[in-house]
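Summary for the funding panel

The consortium committed to producing paired sequence-structure records for every protein in the target list. Below we show the first two records in order, beginning with the earlier of the two.
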Amino acid sequence: MQAEAHRLDRAGWLRAAVLGANDGLVSTASLVVGVAAANPAPGAVLLAGIAGLTAGALSMAAGEFVSVSSQADLETAEIARETAELATMPEAELAELAAIYRARGLSAELARQVARELTAKDALGAHLRDELGITEVSTAKPLQAALASAAAFALGGLPPILIALLAPAGLVLGAVGGATVLGLALLGALAAWAGGAPVLRSMARVMLWGLIAMGITAGVGALVGQAV
């Protein structure tokens, strides 16, 4: 019998990938549009985009590394604590595990039997999984998270840079804005498809906020350009 397919196992990496790419696309495109609206020299637009892409990717990597490192430190401390408790009071830990299974609907007798068998096989693994929610899949990996976030941001922010490089000076604003809206629509559709959510709603959500970000940035850029 074939196992039923679910999409929840994609939630973690999907969220991170879409968030990083969306952030890279919106941030870089908004920066390019804002600078272009101020009517500077063409090279300034490209320079601003590259600087924004580099700074954004590094910021994403640093922020993710610090955040996930803190999570990893917490998990390490909890694992050490659980290991000590299993060594010093195994009966109390067995009763705690059985109580978890009773709360999930098992009878008291069956819950204790399950707790005993899982404890005999891998006591620490059972407590980490069922008491603390720590599994091999969910374990924090700071470096992996940092590199993935930076890569997703860079991939998302690259199209506005390329368009700013290739488009004629007078068309940069419209070309970057239009391509960004299309990119946001594709990201929203991809996220909805992979997660099994309504496609149109997801597309509309990311496009709306992208347009708001670019509109405000372009307005600020135009005002500053006139002032200076």
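The next record, for a separate protein in the list, is shown here:
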Amino acid sequence: MTLLNFTILAAKVVLVMSVLLSTVPVLVWVERRGSAFIQDRLGPNLVGPFGLFQPLADVIKFLFKEDPIPIEAHRFLFPLAPLCSLVPAAVTFAAIPFGDTIELWEKTIVLQIADINVGILYVVAFGSLGIYGILLAGWSSNNKYSILGALRSSAQMISYEVALGASLIGPLMVYGTFSLREIVHLQAGHWGILLQPLAFITFFISAFAECNRLPFDLPEGEAELVAGFHTEYGSIKFALFFMAEYLHMITISALTVTLFFGGWQLIPGLTPLAQWMGVATYPTSIGLSLLQVLSFVLKVGFFLWIFIWIRWTFPRFRYDQLMAFGWKILFPMALMNIFLTTIAIYLKWI
């Protein structure tokens, strides 16, 4: 790797990670204001205009708050667990293309950190590693509520990852590639949801369980387990778990957009803007590249709002209902989608 290529790669890593980490406090503010709107409350409105500085105040609180470690907790694994949950959530985004290419200084730069030819496998494999942080947190805390939350989470993740992985087989059969970048290019004529609606429904519902979001947040279950696996955590360690959850949401939303909604392909509303700007016929122009990135961001933002809206609208499942729904409904739906996709390909309908 040349020095220039290494510099470009490092710049992309720094830029993407900075955007991801800075998006987390924005999502926290949107969730708090959104939940207040849904429940007819005001929400944070005192710290800054419209409460915009409230996330900054929360960060300061996390940084300076006392950070105790329980006497009976494991001294090494207890502080390690939040990092084991955060790092997989952060590095998973590396394989997701957030744009096509951009021309800078007579060099074509791919708007993707790592163009991996098995991108889907990379995302699924690294995304599933987050469970180790939860298990370590529950076990190392030496707390009955924590270990119950960790056991719930492990059973839930294993169950719903089967349905989530099976839901991806249909799109893989249609696209014929594991490369996320190629999948986006193949959706230039029509988005994947038109060909795989059942796969999208199965995948997106399973994604809620993967992110431990309502109505599938049984590992935390405040009414039963205090705070579940992170009951004993506070200060910056709790903030790391908090960040990991939102980074998982961002990554899952970005993967949903990439597989089923054309990735960075322009949404219909941006096409007239591209034509007006005169960049629609120049695939490598900076203007079109920025519009593609904007299209990707808007799509991801829509699904992030869906995550927030669902959390404050639907009640939590009972644990037996959670497991039954995963094995008796979602998994058969994924298998049915594989069967229907096989027939459609054989009959050359798609």
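Regarding this second record: The first strand starts at residue 101 and ends at 104. The first helix runs from residue 3 to 38.
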